[in-house]
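Re-run requested by the PI after the first attempt was lost when the workstation crashed. Everything re-entered from the original request form. Ligand of interest: protoporphyrin IX containing FE.
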Amino acid sequence: MLEAYAKHKDQAVILPIAGPGGQIFVLLPASETKSVTDQPKTVLSLREVIVQGLLYEYTVSDNMLVSHPTHTKLITTTLTNQVGNLLPGLSNETIRAFEEQWGTDTESFRDVTIWDSMGAIVSRATNYAFVGLPYCRDSALLNAGLGFARALPFSQLLLSFTWKPLRPLASLLFTLPCRYYERRFTQMLIPEIENRLHNIENPTSSLSAGKTSGEVEKKNDFLEWCIEQARESGDPRMCRPRTLAGRILLMNLVSIHTSSLTITNVMLDLASSTPEVLEELRAEVEQVLDQCGGQWTKLALNEMEKLDSVLRESARLNTLVAVGLRRRVVAKEGFTTTPGVHLPCGNFCAVHNLGVVHDPDVYEQPDTFKPFRFVGLRRDVNSDDPNKDHVDRARLTFAATGSDYLAFGNGRQACPGRFFAAGELKLMLAYALMYYDLEIMDPRPRDRWIGILRIPSSNAKLRVRRRKGIIEPSLRSDNLV
Ligand code: HEM
């Protein structure tokens, strides 16, 4: 991909990708990023890339989830708006998960496998937002979700090497691990879903079971929003407990890996930077928390500019999306790029990203991890209009998308979960820095490539120790047990 960028930066090239998510793409020049971004999903579709790339037809057993992916809408309409309300619970789960994974020993350092521990913490916190307590603490449920997300790309890979007419037969064998984890996950969640549906349909029976109307309170989590959405649709298939549980499983699939890979990279970047960088970040977290009365609120997280810059810089440098804006042409008449390259319907295209983030004309010293790069760039935004200043600065935050930063894609089909991810990961990073010492490592463990996926070393160890004399955060209140 770097070679394609160096030699054919301004031309469309054909990029055959092997491995998970592999298809043949027409890699468009970076100058086409805006044009691709601007296309509606009726012309260039991301969804088609996901459905085809992950072979959902075989890897997801409930067809309703593929034909009616209504849960993704709820991310934008509800999850993003609820981040502030979810923060107290998210903080509580994050704190407890860190203690479980990184320990509370203030005397000696211990080795932790960074990838595993980040996966476990992200999974617990995210599932707090998806299914609430006590399920987000159920390791069997969380492991089934993680197992499904790990099994699916391998089933897809085996199927993609299978002759198409044989796929229906081969899938019976190749998707066995997916089916296993899917079944485990859904079976554990179905009783809760049945219970919630029962309570909604029979509000008086919950009251006669000795509860007062105050006790039968509505849950505020993704599952509850899915149930509401299903009931409002009037389609009985949407209310099937298995389908509702499948939606939560697919939410785990799209969110846990991306978020844990991102935060693993951040931790590795920081642990291989300098003690001064860590101290500067801690000072910011302490100062902001002081100003906000010790509360991990949305406002407090927004104020942590340096922390935000670290997340964006790490996501830039270790970009998970080596090629950005992967799309399938779905318009019958095809799609024609500005310079006149015509892509017939059914073709896949993408734009350069790896080349862009390593291009010195785009980023100064592009190969260096500069934790406060975006703090500097944000402060340099200098327009006469103070309101415009604010908007332009916001364009350089972790979750803000742009042509030179495709960590979350760009445009109308950009990642809908990025605001939730930003809140969750900032919280994790702030907490890790405040409550733990990280031993500096040199050099940073090398990443691995699987197809177009770049992943940090899965067995890299971080040496961590609980810091002494740090007061417990105020959010760990008893009512969040
Ligand atoms: C740091 C974590 C994350 C990263 C780096 C990430 C990255 C991405 C990227 C690159 C895309 C493709 C966008 C495009 O091509 O324009 C995407 C799509 C998507 N993301 Fe994320 N994501 C993250 C977290 C999440 C979370 C937490 C959720 C859910 C709460 C989520 C839900 C989705 C969904 C549903 C899509 C597909 C949208 C569609 O079907 O149209 N992501 N994400």
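Saved to the shared folder this time. The first strand starts at residue 13 and ends at 16.
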